[in-house]
Amino acid sequence: MGSSFWMVFAGLCVLHMFTEGTEKVCLGTDKQLTSIGDPNHHYNLLKNLYTNCTYVDGNLELVAIEGTGRDLSFVKDIREVTGYVLIALSDISYIPLKNLRIIRGKNLYHGSALSVKFNYNKNIPTLGLRELRFNSLTEILKGNVTFFNNPQLCYENTIDWKGDILANGYYVISDTKDKARIFTRRRGLGPGYCSEQCDYRCKGPNPQDCCHKQCAVGCIGPLATDCLACLHYNNSGKCEEHCPPPFFYDTDLFQTVTNPDAKYTYGSLCVDECPSHLLQEEENCVKTCRKGNTDNGQRVCEKCVGACPKKCTGFQKYQFAGYMTINEAILRNFTNCTIIEGSLVITKQAFEGDLWAGFGPMSPSELSVFSTVEEITGYLQIEGQHEDFTDLSMFRNLKIIQGRELYNQYSLVIYQTSLESLGLTSLQQVNNGKVNIQKNRDLCYNVEDVVWNRILKNPAEQERQINRNKKKTKCVVEGRTCSDQCNSDGCWGFEASQCIKCANCEATTHYSDNRNTDNSQQVSEKCVGACPKRSCFWFSCGFADLQVFQGQCAGFQKNQFAGYMTINEAILRNFTNCTIIEGSLVITKQAFEGDLWAGFGPMSPSELSVFSTVEEITGYLQIEGQHKDFTDLSMFRNLKIIQGRELYNQYSLVIYQTSLESLGLTSLQQVNNGKVNIRKNRDLCYNVDDAVWNRILKNPAEQERQINRNKKKTKCVAEGRTCSDQCDSDGCWGFEASQCIKCANFELDGTCVESCEATTHYSDNKQCRPCDPQCDGMCNGPCKDCHSECVDGCVDDTRSGCFRCRHVKVGDECLEECPQGFQEKDGICEPIFSWDIFG
């Protein structure tokens, strides 16, 4: 390589990759040769996407960049790309990717990790890509390099791709005869490179210049912390073969113990927690849970209880190849789906048809197949016009858009449609990505900003571009405004059933002429001026934002249980089989003593077991009073969430002057608003660590907790009323091993244990799982079937874990057939390089 090789490394050493505060992860794209909008709009999208970005999670696609004056300095900071780099259909002189060091090639573009093609101006022959300027590129871990039809490009044939950059078995393809060179990479580094003693990379020609074996690209010293990029994983500046696992074997104790330094794997990074747009599955950050698991609502994959929600694959890699939109040919794939794994795209071709793609026109009414969808893990893109396409009522049950895949930074796009209203009446969360609702000429948009601030997870970062729709003055003149029963938040449509919040009262889901729920019937849900006489079973006057569904019961709120100040034996039956309490729950000493003036007698604490089904309280929980049998709150053992939409003197949880000995709130996960008061409980041995409340409280800095003047800890210890030794340092809700907040070792059927039994294996979250009946004796993990595309066995249940493929292989994955752009040869899908295909 000569002196130029060492000059490149001298430049690389100027900025070390692990300098704290310089890393910014950006999500890449998967649009290949497609551009968005006019050239200026497309350029601005790219600029917004990659400004200050250093790490691209996915593909870097710089396509259709026109104009000699374009400033592309926004890509100058990019150092690593996990997928492929595509530079195409552009006539700019150079791409300043001067700091790009490594392309991992986890995704490939027709077999290539770097593809540079069609970069010229057909009208002005002198315009086109002239230089790559990849000053720092030193590593491509997987995939070929392709150059095609770049008539002005120089110097790419001076790079020793096989010696410097490409991995073993990959090659360079160039269309120009005087430049064409095909290399087969050999891992051994010859004279003029690194010393023979080096494992892989080096910073100079001498033996003392060898890099650590976990380094890619190069290094500034011999340690794993001196790498310029990591071959496998970057663990806070140290390159390692694997991220620190959740458990390790203690050779002194002869036990599997918890690893305090455990981290999650995110691409080639080791992170303390998974990014908000991904899920946690065991020690990995994933886009979707594996088969048999589902999102538990806290972005953690857990085993389904009973049947899993029906998941259907949306637009993603290798799915619906050749189609750019939902259409009548594939619509049947989405019948009865609850979760779309991937994205949904509806464009004008859906309604017009596309003979080239092989599908005919479709009526908007056919989109009603999506009425069961509650969650989309990727993005939702809506474009196109049709006289019957006037709202998105087919998505009326859509609650969550995760945004784990984005469409040029957007997770919700509604652009140039014929919509008159949105109709997204159930939408509650958009967890990642921006919102684009623009150029819908008939859309009377009536949703206030305050609503998006609630829906968007990070409203300060998730920009919303909502403009150039129908002018508000025209909507008013035409009478296309919100119902007068809606409050100032606005509406998703023009009916009283489409208010975001009611101005007055909300009709309930059930009605009856008496309080016998067995005779209740369903009615429409809408905002009304007043609840109809003798027809309301539950109503929410004054709490119009609360919708009542089956399993919900009204708690203490305005006009409910008038005259009663506490739960009591007279009203207890109203809470049978309740899952959600709409309002608050109050238990005071009068509940146990009775109150003749109020008309109820004393009650036993055992009767409070009626609350064992409650999972959520939308208001506050107030517990006071003493009774010899009232020693814990195990009746609330399934309570997960206290919303705090109503507060008791600023508090959402009050446990005051009770006879409780322990709390027993073993399922409590969230207190979303209000302070916590646990005081003057003389027998209460309180053993919950502050770190636990920091996780439970939504805003721990603002939600003050007053937890004091309970039983002294020294007395609790003297009496042996402490946490089980199977609990970790977070503490416990009670004194049994089943009441630990976290297990010190392992969990078996809800109880913390020292070790898993021989007929079990441990997996995610330190849980002991029974061995599969097919396993012979002990097991180290769940028995799984190989993927259906595997033959002769496998190492795991994925497409890439097969020993041999049943049909064809692309990269390391077994598929039913070769994707578009590939052809089969001896069971291997090879890219089709047809140089004159574009004319």
Automatic annotation (TrEMBL):
Listed GO CC annotations: membrane
Keyword ATP-binding assigned: yes
Reaction(s) catalysed (UniProt annotation): L-tyrosyl-[protein] + ATP = O-phospho-L-tyrosyl-[protein] + ADP + H(+)
Domain Furin-like cysteine-rich span(s) in chain numbering: 193-313
Compartment(s): Membrane; Secreted, Cell wall
Organism: Branchiostoma floridae
PANTHER family per record: RECEPTOR PROTEIN-TYROSINE KINASE, SPORULATION-SPECIFIC PROTEIN-RELATED
One Pfam assignment: Recep_L_domain
Xref: CDD domains: FU
Membrane topology: Single-pass type I membrane protein
GO biological process: one example: cell surface receptor protein tyrosine kinase signaling pathway
Protein name: receptor protein-tyrosine kinase
Presence of the UniProt keyword Glycoprotein in the record: yes
EC nos: 2.7.10.1
Extent of the signal sequence: 1-21
Keyword entries, A-Z: ATP-binding, Cell wall, Glycoprotein, Kinase, Membrane, Nucleotide-binding, Phosphoprotein, Receptor, Secreted, Signal, Transferase, Transmembrane, Transmembrane helix, Tyrosine-protein kinase
Annotated Receptor L-domain domain residues: 52-162, 336-455, 577-696
Matching InterPro entries: CWI-Assembly_Regulator, Furin-like_Cys-rich_dom, Furin_repeat, GF_recep_IV, Growth_fac_rcpt_cys_sf, Rcpt_L-dom, Rcpt_L-dom_sf
Domain Growth factor receptor: 722-781
GO molecular function: ATP binding; transmembrane receptor protein tyrosine kinase activity
